[in-house]
Amino acid sequence: MTQPTFAPVPASGVVRPTMATATPEFARRPKPGLLGAVPGAATVGRGQGTQAPGEGFALTIAERECAKLTFDHDHDRHDVVLGVALVAAKRASLMGRAPQLSDVQMAMKLFGLVRVDAVSPTLSAPFAGIAHSYVAQRRFVDAVTEGRLVGPGELHQSTTTRDHHELRPEY
After folding, report:
1. What angle do CA 24, 29, 34 make, to 5 degrees?
2. Taking the model in full, what pTM does it have?
3. 40-66 pLDDT per residue, tens
4. How many CA atoms lie within 13 A of 166 on its CB side?
């Protein structure tokens, strides 16, 4: 609040005018939330996750693919969908791209969800409770090794280096 000019104020209490100065660019701290903002700041290891563009799209694809499945207990559906999406997002990030349908199909194949009549409690057991616990999600994804997700020579393969006939959907 400003001081009124008519109120008596001791000399030590007078608000002195200040001048704002701009922060010099060379001294500005990089934003820690941006990947690559600080060299070497990206943490890698158990519980840290793997970043990739558009990882949320894996959940959309997983929901579409898991909608084709029937479940013995419908309450397992949310855990299975999220687990498949997390593993698909990890596979896509290991390859350095956004998630695709093939990532979700690979994740479903990994857990035996491809050609089943109904998803039994035995098949959904690895996914139990992960939809409601971030720690369980990280533990679940960390348990799936790179070797199980990505074949040799596939790591960091960009879609731009593939032939166009490989990118066409199969009908």
Report:
1. 130
2. 0.65
3. 445 556 766 677 778 889 999 999 999
4. 7
